[in-house]
Write a structure and sequence with these properties.
By secondary structure, the protein is mostly helical. α2 packs parallel to α4, α3 packs antiparallel against α6 and α4 packs across α5.
Length: about 110
């Protein structure tokens, strides 16, 4: 019976860890890092954005960051091009505020 519990615990633990790795918050943090943002700033921004934005906006931002980091030279300024295309003032404002706070004041 103990072996079965260990297996169940392992499966549940893997599921939880996999869910955390693919959350929009985790994808936003990974996307920011992929664009060349330092780990500490990316983590700070992802935390702040997760607090400020609804889930659907976080998913949109994760997609935009993934597209911004694909292919060409990775640099944080590339996100500005994609943010302009989004035409979503709430995401743009939250990203700008978080970016300033996390890169300048952190």
């Amino acid at each position: 019976m103990t072996a079965i519990r260990s297996v169940i615990f392992g499966v549940v633990l893997c599921s939880v860890l996999a869910g955390c790795a693919t959350s929009p918050r985790g994808q936003v943090e990974g996307g920011l890092k992929k664009l060349g943002m330092p780990d500490r700033s990316a983590q700070c921004m992802a935390d702040e954005l997760d607090d400020r934005l609804p889930l659907e906006d976080m998913k949109t931002l994760a997609r935009v960051l993934d597209e911004a980091g694909a292919g060409k030279e990775a640099r944080p300024a590339r996100i500005l091009d994609f943010m302009n295309d989004l035409d979503d003032p709430e995401i743009t404002e939250a990203a700008a505020r978080s970016g300033i706070r996390c890169t300048v004041f952190n």
